[in-house]
Amino acid sequence: MIETSATATHFLGMPPAHFLRDYWQQKPLLVRNAFAGFTSPLAADDLGGLACEEYALSRLITRDPVLDQWNVRSGPFAEADFSALPASHWTLLVQDVDKWDADVAALLDHFDFLPSWRVDDVMVSYAEDGGSVGAHADQYDVFLIQGIGQRRWQISTDAEAPMAFRDDVDLKLLREFKPTHDWLLEPGDMLYLPPGVAHHGVAEGECLTFSVGMRAPAVAEMITDFAGFLAERMAEEWRYADAGITPAKHPGEIDDVALEKIEQTLRESLALDASLLRHWFGSFITRYRAAHEAVPRSKPIGKPEFARRLEAGAGMAFNPWTRWAWSKTARGATLFVAGEAHACSRNLALRICTRAALQAHELAAMDDASLELLRTLTNAGHLALSRTRSRS
């Protein structure tokens, strides 16, 4: 089964455990009416306005349908850029819209059956009739939610289909694409695609689509980062050694004995316990892939002022760009925040990783160590004190 319909209790058309067992990273699934009565949290004008912001990651993709020529431009854009666009065959894409708009971010609540550290962003695309980004295949899982209008999606589940790219366009478009399935999605429908599935979406009229993408770092990226992590912790004195070797037989030869010693040296250098692996991966996966970083407070807040603000009833809000994760330790937890590791209680780690605003009554019940960590995160720009409650 590759197509199903949502039920009153399961927006995936099945329990999450069944979806993870049978579909996740294995095969596509079209869910009709996954978001019943869906009302888009964003309008086309809102997306256009966001694409004009300096720090928004946006692209405009246009296609000449006669010559099959593609043009890609990166933002930020000006209003005049949109007024100069043709009547059809163009698409505006903006990444990380969940960081800019709380209503868009709320869509992610539906995907809480997945590890939150796997979620990358919600990209939103607006297209006029015929608008598309071409036939391609992503290297990560994606959920495509139809928001406004209709989009025709074609996919290929042919494992033998050619995957070569065109060399005449600044997009990784497939040279050949022969669909095995063809659907027209209405608002509220959702298409799940695992990595590597070729797909092609084309707007039929005005169209807006929400794309929930998962983070899937390349193994090469992980090895490079992990090697750097280990290297920082190795003493300068730890070097290649070959005591007990026999006389060299031939000039310049790297013989089997040398290779065995090199392999042994590298294996020993990569030996690590679970806590070291947790520390590396938690720090690695919470560093954001884009160039956005939290801005520390220009004037750090001290303990007395922090305590006074909390006493006055202040709550705490989360920086939408900060990534959070945690892992168990023997006596508590390690909280990973934008690449940094902090010791804390498991209860605090669990609560923080919900990313729901911290209320005054919760803060009042916390111990000194927890509050000090929150102050540190506030000064680093990952948290912000909200306004104090008014007094009667």
Please give a handful of descriptors for the protein shown.
392 residues, alpha+beta, eleven-stranded mixed β-sheet, three-stranded antiparallel β-sheet, 12 helices, 16 strands
Can you describe what's shown?
The protein is of the alpha+beta class. The chain has twelve helices and 16 strands. The longest helix is centred in the C-terminal third of the chain and has 15 residues. It starts with a strand and ends in a 7-residue tail after the last strand. The mean pLDDT is 94.
Task: Summarize this entry quickly.
The chain is built from twelve helices and 16 strands.
Number of helices, counting only DSSP H or I runs of 4 residues or more: 12
**Structural class by SSE content:** alpha+beta
Oligomer: single chain
Q: Averaging pLDDT over every residue, what do you get?
A: 94
Furnish the topology, listing elements before pairings.
Blueprint: E1 3-5, H1 16-22, E2 29-32, H2 44-51, E3 58-64, E4 69-74, H3 79-83, E5 90-94, H4 97-100, H5 102-105, E6 119-127, E7 136-137, E8 142-156, E9 181-185, E10 190-193, E11 198-214, H6 219-231, H7 256-270, H8 274-285, H9 303-311, E12 316-318, E13 324-328, E14 333-337, E15 340-344, H10 346-352, H11 360-364, H12 368-379, E16 383-385
Parallel strand pairs: 1-2
Antiparallel strand pairs: 2-10, 3-4, 3-5, 5-6, 6-11, 7-11, 8-9, 8-10, 8-11, 12-16, 13-14, 14-15
